[in-house]
Design brief:
The chain has 313 residues and is mainly α. It has two domains: 46 residues, no CATH class; 219 residues, Orthogonal Bundle (MetI-like fold), CATH 1.10.3720. 78% of the residues lie in helices and 0% in strands. The relative contact order is 0.15.
Length: 313
């Protein structure tokens, strides 16, 4: 296991370089510039050129990237073009919101998705078909559209849940929970459908296997077979899917945090792209990549624990 962790960490280095370099190039191709974003319509060509020279944006892209990379190697992600604050301090103030949203969504997806998947597998009749229909509905509705529908119904029509903002747990646990309900539902709909289908298919395959028939022939109860034996074997592919979905949820936060006005990394990425704030965009890309690497490590560890015969070495 230690070799696996070490190898994954070594693989993270070229991955970070690839992600950061591609982000740098793609941002440079976005029409407009940070100078025009700062000066607005009142900026003269001379002022725009002066700001670009001051920020080093008049240099070739590869020179700008090397300058940024040199700062990272010295422990600095640079400063924001917009407010000149440290990029690391800006990201650290927001990462808690994004991680809270994503982790809460993963917990909901795992509990509800696995439960519905198991139910659909052991009750393949009307219940199974109903679960399948709900799953396809979750995949069909975009999360931003679902978010707007949730706001219209629960915030405007019923006035029972807030439509925007984030309340820290230390401030009020109840308001913290209320501020997460709608964003989590909007973010979880698509992944939930995937987990339900994956769990159902895996459970059906395991329940039809030889060892389950042997357990039934020995007189073991159906509940014990499903929960203690079949579910553990079916959980191996489900855990892998959850690890992949965690990475996808990070990209989904860009839309969901914008819809619900949450002060996380996703909404920061969206506003930074509009403002052409390159150091902040690079910082968000690095943080997202590090989170994905950590989740992949955790997924590999849980995968090996669930199935000792399949050890990741």
């Amino acid at each position: 296991m230690r070799r696996m962790i070490l190898r994954r960490l070594l693989q993270a280095v070229p991955l970070l370089l690839i992600v950061s370099s591609f982000t740098f190039v793609l941002v440079s191709l976005i029409p407009g510039s940070v100078a025009t974003a700062l000066l607005g319509d009142t900026g003269t060509p001379a002022e725009i050129v002066a700001i670009q020279r001051q920020l080093g944006l008049n240099r070739p892209v590869y020179v700008q990237y090397w300058h940024w990379l040199d700062g990272v190697l010295h422990g600095s992600l640079g400063s924001s073009f917009q407010n000149h604050q440290s990029v690391a301090s800006i990201l650290n103030a927001r990462i808690g919101v994004t991680l809270t949203l994503v982790i809460a969504t993963v917990i909901v997806v795992a509990i509800v998705g696995v439960s519905l998947g198991v139910l659909a597998a052991v009750r393949p009749g009307v219940i199974g078909r109903s679960v399948d229909s709900l799953s396809w509905l979750g995949l069909a509705i975009p999360n931003f559209w679902l978010g707007l529908l949730l706001v219209a119904f629960f915030s405007i029509f019923l006035s029972v849940l807030p439509s925007e903002g984030f309340v820290a747990f230390s401030t009020s646990p109840l308001r913290w929970l209320e501020s997460l309900v709608l964003p989590v539902i909007a973010l979880a709909a698509g992944p939930l459908a995937i987990v339900v289908k994956q769990t159902r298919d895996a459970m059906v395959s395991v329940l039809e296997s030889e060892f389950v028939r042997t357990l039934r022939a020995s007189g073991l109860g159906e509940r014990s077979i499903v929960l203690k034996h079949a579910l553990r074997n079916a959980a191996v592919p489900v855990v892998t899917v959850l690890g992949v979905l965690f990475a996808q949820l990070l990209s989904g936060t860009v839309i969901v945090e914008t819809v619900f006005v949450l002060p996380g990394l996703g909404s920061l990425a969206a506003s930074s792209v509009s403002a052409h704030d390159l150091p902040v965009i690079e910082g968000v890309a690095v943080y997202f990549t590090l989170i994905v690497i950590a989740i992949n490590l955790l997924t590999d560890t849980v995968y090996g624990w669930l199935n000792p015969k399949v050890r990741v070495t």
